[in-house]
């Protein structure tokens, strides 16, 4: 039985590793082969390092390694080793691919074209993150910084809002250094990136998903969805036919990206939880990103 479980875990990790390697190669290429040669920048850690590069002449991959290791150590101190282990693999792997593509010195475009670069950078980096998020892994970038800020300074502010402020601050700062046009192109890249991630994980037409969660950690999961994700929660009483045990099922509607954050939280809170993800074509009613029932 133990050997069978070990084989199952190894098989899963092998599949995870394939997705991670493909994702890291695409993400590194989008940064080294598209973004940097065309003088562009972005949000998150990438944008921060682009700002730092404006003052020091150090390779992007080296600065990224330093930033990733600093975040990993800070995460371990502030959030604990369990949280740090979730970003350890990407902390090592992704900067290695950045270094590799720097040595290859290969660019996608034959000549400098900021518009094409902004589009394709968003597409390639979106596919990268879509592959990695699908397997439940995290880069340990600004999302980890946002978690630390939330836990230590702003426990009542949603994680997505803190993350939005961080990325917006980076892009605005880039505008002062590189010019407003570059900052606007960075915004275009971020939008394409977000849409591509959603497409990779859920398909092109998915605007929202419904999560149904049965867990023994009901209060913790509901509190995370309400306070961190800023989404509503409905409780439904369900009874297992075989066990005849009644439990409260959590039902919530959110964006595809938010569903992955919820999934990651549930996975680390209750590994035996039962989660159903349902594609939603349209949502009418009060809530961020939902259609107005009076207008549609």
Salient structural properties:
296 residues, alpha+beta, Alpha-Beta Plaits, 2 domains, four-stranded antiparallel β-sheet, globular
Give a short synopsis of this structure.
64% of the residues lie in helices and 10% in strands. The chain has 296 residues and is an alpha+beta fold.
Structure write-up:
It is built from ten helices and four strands; from the N terminus they run ααααααααβαββαβ. It is of the alpha+beta class and 296 residues long. It folds into two domains: 2-202, no CATH class; 208-280, Alpha-Beta Plaits (2-Layer Sandwich), CATH 3.30.70. It has a four-stranded antiparallel β-sheet with strand order 2-3-1-4. β2 and β3 (246-254) form a beta hairpin. α3 (60-79) packs antiparallel against α4.
Can you count the helices? Answer: 10
The N- and C-terminal alpha carbons lie at a distance of: 55 Å
Which structural class should the secondary elements be placed in? alpha+beta
Question: How many domains make up the coordinates?
Answer: 2
Domain DUF2179: 231-285
Transmembrane segments: 12-36, 62-81, 88-108, 114-137, 158-178
Organism: Sinanaerobacter chloroacetimidivorans
Subcellular location: Cell membrane
Helix-strand blueprint:
Elements: H1 2-35, H2 44-53, H3 60-79, H4 81-104, H5 114-134, H6 142-152, H7 159-178, H8 180-202, E1 208-214, H9 218-228, E2 234-239, E3 246-254, H10 256-269, E4 274-280
Antiparallel strand pairs: 1-3, 1-4, 2-3
Helix pairs in contact: 1-4, 1-5, 2-3, 2-7, 3-4, 3-6, 5-8, 6-7, 7-8, 9-10
